[in-house]
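sorry for the late reply, my laptop died twice this morning and i had to redo everyting from scratch. anyway the thing you sent over, i finally got around to it. pasting the sequence first so we're on the same page, its 129 residues, then the predicted structure underneath. double check i copied it right bc i was rushing
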Amino acid sequence: MENTKLRREAAALAIVVFLLGALVGGIATHVWTIHAATQQFSPHGRDQILSQMTRELDFTPEQMKLVTGIVDDTHGQIRALYSPLDAQREQIRQKARERIRAVLTPDQMPKFEDFLRRLDEQRKKEDSR
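ok and here's the structure:
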């Protein structure tokens, strides 16, 4: 009887760990996908794309000026499109963090908070580029 109970608890724990792994993996994949998709519109990505286009297409100075304007306008439109979702995305992120906190041990909590602090600093640094 005791052995069966232990097996059930071990199985339940394995399932919880698997589900948390899947959740964290899904969130990380989603974040990476968004990052990769918007990277081309970041200032760094913008400069890289414009530089590559200039080399490959041999832009004249006038073409470079016009294409830069088009890219900057596109960047602004994309930011305007995603901007209303920023608050909702942050709310979802905070809910996920609360759900994860609920399953952590007291020993894990400071490590998780430190992890989140580093993650937020990295995100802030990337957003400012």
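The two ends are 60 Å apart (CA to CA).
thats about all i looked at so far, will dig more tmrw
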